[in-house]
Amino acid sequence: MDFSLDLPTGPLAEAALTAVFTSEARPVANHSVRSFLFAELLAAHEGCLEDADYDRDLLFAAAVMHDLGAGDLAKGEARFEVEGADLAAGLLRRHHVPEADVDRVWEAIALHTSPGLAERRGLLCYLTRGGVGIDFGVRAEVVAAWEPRIHAAHPRLDMVRSLVDAIVERAARSEAAAPHYSLGGGLLRERRAHGVTELERAAESSPWGR
User: Fold this and answer.
1) What is the pLDDT of residues 129-152, one digit of tens each?
2) Which of 35, 98, 144, 179 is the residue whose CA sits 20 to 30 A from 169?
3) Domain 11-154: what homologous superfamily?
4) C-alpha to C-alpha distance for 102 and 157, rounded to whole angstroms
């Protein structure tokens, strides 16, 4: 298939990358870029690139900024998915993105840890969650041909541990940031009880490790 590791360009894409790489730990930022590339490969694999709902720039915004709530811009006043969605929406509005598209990106980020919901809320939500999932080893066969080049360009650098650290640190700041049955709340409670989370244990057996 015709595929490139080139990322979208322009003021909005540059602002999104700047926000990510200046506020997130480098392993998490690299994960965010890989998530976009994997989401794009997933779209190609499933024949979605010509779909009327497919928008590469919005997919880039949602996938690259999906973990802003685990970065330094987040205050830990709500669950990290929601804080990240709010931060991304603010950036999009500053770049005069239409409100309907802002809402689509907000939803994709807010639901990216919600299995069974994201997959039913449209193509952008589906691909965003799918790209993130692939970087955790889910459906890794879809991107097998390109995975070595993507990891060479954007290495993992102990991504899972770094991301869990960031989510747990913010979840510990307030009860609103760690509600029961949320990812952040669950990870915080696992860390406090066991010192390690199931997500970290699972990474040991994923196709690409941590």
Assistant:
1) 999 999 999 999 999 999 999 999
2) 35
3) Hypothetical protein af1432 (1.10.3210.10)
4) 31
